[in-house]
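Complex record, two chains
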Amino acid sequence: MSSTTIETPTVASPTAPDSGNVMEIRHLTKRFPVGGLFDKREVHALEDVSFTIPRGQVVSLVGESGSGKSTTARVLARLIQPTSGQILYQGRDILKEEPRRASLHYRNEVQMVFQDPFGSLNPAHPIKYLLERPLKIHKTVRGSAATQERVEELLDTVGLQPGAEVKEKFPYELSGGQRQRVAFARALAVEPKVLLADEPVSMLDVSIRIGILNLMERLKEDNGISFLYITHDIASARYIGDQTNVMYAGRMVESAESRELIDAPAHPYTKLLLSAVPNPHAGLRTDQEIVRGEIPSLVNPPAGCPFAPRCPHVMPECREAMPGITHIGPRHWVRCYLHGPGDDRAAMATSPAAAG
Amino acid sequence: MASTTTTTTLPAAKAAPSAAHGRTRGPAAPLIQIEDLKVDYLSSRGPVRAVDGVSFQLRPGEVLGLAGESGSGKSTIAQAILRILQPPAVITGGHVRFDGRDVLEMSDEELLAFRWRDVSMVFQSAMNALNPVMTIGEQIVDVILAHENLSRKAARARARELLEVVGIEANRIDSYPHQLSGGMRQRAVIAIALALKPPLMIMDEPTTALDVVVQKEILAQITELREQLGFSIIFITHDLSLLVEIADRIAIMYAGQIVELAAARELFTNPLHPYTQGLMSSFPALTGPRVKLAGIPGSPPDLRKPPSGCRFHPRCPKRMPICDTVVPLLAEAQPDHWVSCHLYPESTPVGAPAGARHAIEGAAR
């Protein structure tokens, strides 16, 4: 029950305005073809998604299943190829520079941690093997003594002590939380700059989750790692996320500093999401909007805002075209006609550095 | 399992919590009474006790939340009540009394009548609980015909009614499960559980696989149905924040035992057990100042070799010497608030060594 207030996260280090962001994602679109020869349809998994990951910050993506959160992470990890759009990594247009597959260098610096710690660790090998492999592939250390030392150091970093003992164990001998720590250790082995964490705590027991979130916070503070934290739990996004982006049906509909997003949500979908979170602390929230329905089919979706069919404030223009980005605060933007038609070009510049 | 203790008094709600929902029943007659239930999983290395001496009771119309982490035994209890445990799980002791009868002593025929008519269950993976090659209508009709002497036509009419009750348009009766969304499928599963209007429904993580918005809808639906039909619910989940909203009382389980039992609000505002307190500081709040949470150090114990004394002692920040050796009893430390922890003298069995009840500095660090 210890409670020390977390200090307000410092905004990206004030160097050149352009280098404030380790990653900048512009108009990312991903369509998956479905159907047969005569029935060509497409799943619009991502539509015009733009956001930034400032250096040394945690950017959260929240949304329901099917909203495109995981697809975003997989595109950034270069596990799947986007249909169009740009990914600027350290200012480099990597889809242009490395069009077919990502370079070893990129894969080294941008690592991914998956949801399921039971599925993501090879059960046939001890922990040390799982950690040695990235060290060998990426040639970060030489010699077996140095390798073992590094393995133990990594386990120590993620809070698995004593490393000398833990490294001999097999995944089945570890609990879910410990396995997820190993997954983080494996990602850290190559000293990445960015970690894409896809629902890293949702399969863990409640009492363990906070430990992993605190670990991420520590890696951010101590190692300067930038995070993309994907979650359906908006409260945890508020807990560690500096900036939170809300996704709905493949679109990013709102972005704000995490606390502001929850205290002053602008998009009707964000409001709906917040009203649905079980919150025993509440009793205050009066702006409950009762909206039924689920995320629409992403196969050949109709034009306009995807939330229009469920939206309590729907207007005629909502069904015609998706609104652009409207800035309503220094680090807060929304795509909703209630706040204005928005500016399409603004999608390019959504970084706090550019906006603030 | 050194000293398993049979609690003589059963934790029950004295002030009928259901009164708040407009029902005024006498304080007597619990609907179901679980006494000292024990379930073992037999393994080659000896039995593993998954449920160890669990006792609680439920009044008509009450919602009892059963919360705990994976492996705490909450789902095993549900399956023991319905006697649908599969080997190697074996009920090794205790009683489950329903309406004056002991479920654990029922014959196979009695069980067939008991299941679904008296107690129905909504399973954890409701998405997969439906048969993919049968329409939802057929699946509801099946349940009705298995238990009631009705014509197929009458059963189908009932099925349409049931679908409307759970918020599915009756014309979806001939839909296959894959044609329904996750939330709709969950509603269909609830319709099947309601088919015989049982007085008790056990819901095992009914909303875990659903998105929050859909979860909210399903919970609202369940609450509404309960108010209309007056059934009781044993609601099993790991999500304590959700229970505070839906349950009248909450039992917290840890490593096969109930460690705390109280009215939902009371448990939330005044948790007594260090484990419950730890759980409360494990989920970040949506409102208020952003505080650093501690969670609970360590992980739940391996039930093949559970810790001696209090099972929570290796992770407990308030551990005392007595906790290592003496098993605490679930006792009423405050009115209607039951806890199993040596911090409360009521929990320490008579004759336990004195002088051992002082905190160890830096315990569980």
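Note: DSSP finds twelve helices and twelve strands in chain A.
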